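Appendix B, Record 12. Input sequence as logged:
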Amino acid sequence: MAYTISEIETALSIPYGTVTGDSQLLVEFRQSSISDPVINFLIRDSELLVITSYDPSGIAVVNLLNLLRDIAHTSPDEEKIMAVLGHPQIYALSHRHFNKWLINAAIQSDDPAALAVAIKRLSGNGISPHDIFSAFLQQVSRMAEDEIKPKGEQIVLNYLKDQIRKTKKLVYPGSAVVGFSQEWNLLYLQLLEEVKPEFAAEYLTHGIYATRNNSVLEFAAYRDGFYLPAIRESLEDTRDSTLYVLQTRLASAILLDDAYPQQFTQLKLNLAEHYLRYFLKNYPKENWENFFSLKDFDGAPFPYTTCAFYFLLKEATQTGRQLLDEFFAGKAFMQLPTLKMAQITLGNDALPYFEMASKMDFGNNYTLELLSIMEEKFDAAQSLPIIWNFASNKSAAIKEKVATFIAMADPHAEQKAVELLGGTKKELRQTAAFILSKLPSESAKSIISEALDGEENDNARDILLQSFTASLPEKADSTFVMNMVNAAKKRGKLSKPVEPEYDENSLPHVYDKQGTALSSDYVRFLLYRMSRVSEMTAEPEAKFILALIDREKSSAFSNAVFQVFLDKGAKPEHKYILALVALMGGDAIVDKIRINTNKWIEENRHKMAEFGIKALALHGSNKALRWIEWYSRKFKTKKAKIGAAAIEALEIASQQLGITTYELADSVIPDFGFNGLFKEFSAGNGSFRAFVDNNFKIAFLDESNKKLKSMPSAAATELKEEFKAIDKEIKDIVRSQSSRMEYYLIIQRRWSTVQWEQLFLSNPVMFIYATRLLWGIYNSRGELQSTFLCNDDTSLIDLNDEEVALPDDYLIGLVHPFEMGQELLTGWKRKFFELSIVQPFAQLDRKIFSTENLDLSASSINQYKGKETMPDSIRGTLEKFGWHRGAVMDGGMIESFNQLYDRAGLVAVLEVEGVGAAYGWGGQEKLGRLYVVKQSATIRNIYHLPLSETEENMVKLRDVPAIFLNEMLMAVESIKLK
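Logged structural output:
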């Protein structure tokens, strides 16, 4: 009897192996070109299976394997399944699963015919006898490792032995028929020992090179060291070697020498020398190689050349030193760990090798590390002459490191620096500037002060200026500024514009606060000094000119310069222009920077977008800071670098103001020029008031307090445009504030009475939140004392409609339903319903989860571990609840999602599996452990995932604030499971 469509679709919807079986996969199968031919063939509507093309969307066809049972006695219907899975256009989809099913079916059957049928079908599918043999060997081995003893194990073992008997030379099994091929197989060795013992030693030594992790000690101990002589012979044979083989031999000898003292020492040293000579001849310029963990250094990994040199310098010193000389003579790359080993084994006698390395050009990072080693490992008097040799290096980082060491170690540093400062070589003058900047003496400061006006090399002068910045006046008089500009002119720095396009004579004027246009020299000086900054900041001398400028009157100049910057492609190397226009531009420049920052984000010019955000921070206006706060939340998860740049900018701004980032976010919410909750204006012969209604839209009242349907038609066009712009901005504010307020509910943010009244009763937008949310009064211990609602007339009432007065010494916050008893919660729900109050997010209707089934003495919740979820549900749900992704591991998979509770210094972590870094790809998504760690366990938003419950950063569930624990559970419980 043929299969029914229902039976087929049921089978297709059940996962087989790594192929999922969800409804979407079944839909895709039904839409594929192979669906109709396959189903018609299986239900016997067609006797022929005609498929003309490969269609990957039909992958669910693999799940037909669910219908197969006994391989040796198949029914006609099962033969049809076999025919489908073996069809050339389908086999490309099914081969891994189909072949594995055939092999496993044979192994698990006690009928010898099952093996014969499986081999025949595998052969018919184009699998070679060697690969069939290897596949059966692999599967039987894996079952043995898992302690599974299938019915047909002995039948398969007999087949394997028969195949081995027929071989005339050693065959190395390996096949990807059922997945990744095993590199070495213990079962095969045991079969060889039984059937072809003459091949056993050769195969065992092959395993030393074939296994990823060196198994020489296991092989050496096998059968009480029976193969140890063969292993030694294999290691001593250095013919026809490759780098990998030589590394494996050296590693094996090191391990054996440690396990069998004195027996393999000379072999180890011989192989170390052979490896180094081979490496010097074939890879002299290679700066990366494989690593080996040395037991002498607590298992720390070192390059193989370093390991070889270590043992030679330690146990055959003359040979080791000779090879070091040969490496330097051949100008071969010298690993820094090798130089460290030279110092460890030779002490001060290793210094000449450091000097040799200092004369090689292995890159700036190499040189910096080399200097660090010398400073740490050798006496200053010994290393100082070598370090002075780096004084003319072109790298600023190297010059600064050299200068720092010299300033501390050389008693004549100041005298030598003065001599260099008067020389002609700019690199040496720069190093001299660094040295003087590191010296604390008054004479050094005096030398720097005198040198500033005369130093023509900008790099050297900037170094001197950096150390002198603290000595500059906070405010400069006109004489100081004039002398500063004239000194730059005398040095020849104002002879031409910093860029031809920024010629101040072709740009609008810059005005000071008295309304006077600044001279061209002052403007050119400003551009020149700003061009010297490498970060988004104000240059120390440019600050004095910036302090003179009237920003609004100079807007035309800022706008023009910014347009030139954009026309030139907004290049990162010209970011100083972006910083300049932000520092001197008026309100209009904020929107220009924001619009272009959004454009850079869309174009994936993330570095420029970061500069744009930092430029807004430099502008410093409430409007600019409000946009930064928006960026910090908008890109908290997606484009996380942009979000991180915004968070950093907010933190810097809040530190400068001496407030928290939360208080800063409150302070930048605009009031649009309203007087409290209203903005009065005239239109025609009437007076009107504008306000923000419960729908967060601008509304209007006439003189009789009657709400109008629209703005008075008699209002001036300019006024209409103003309110239109306000309405648009309110929409942006509401998008940001609703998520902020919900986050404040989660982390239980509190306001003082003064702060709350100022923010929620005086700001026209935030007042609407005050009227649509339930508030609580808390004592200093954070305990809820009473609850209240804000009416449209700003009066505050409790559940019984009694007016509430806010005490000065208490705190105000959003009430979480977790804090209220059922009677109080039900009462407030009824009142909100009666008053038709629609909350901007779920507050009173928020889910409450019981912790009765949780072990609060534990540090993690494991009840979700291993649960499979619907595709993309983990990411989509958690991001909606304000979580953000953790580190992306190898293969582009996310290892966790995290929720920050910074007020308490805690982070909730949910481990996950199968979630790809991008939407739409990944594996089978699963949940893992849920727990809380201390925020101190984070480095740049990357969390060390604890291995055990006892790790120091793990927080006991009983110590997690109850509301935060509830919010964790609500977010995870909202993820859709399969």
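The mean pLDDT is 89.
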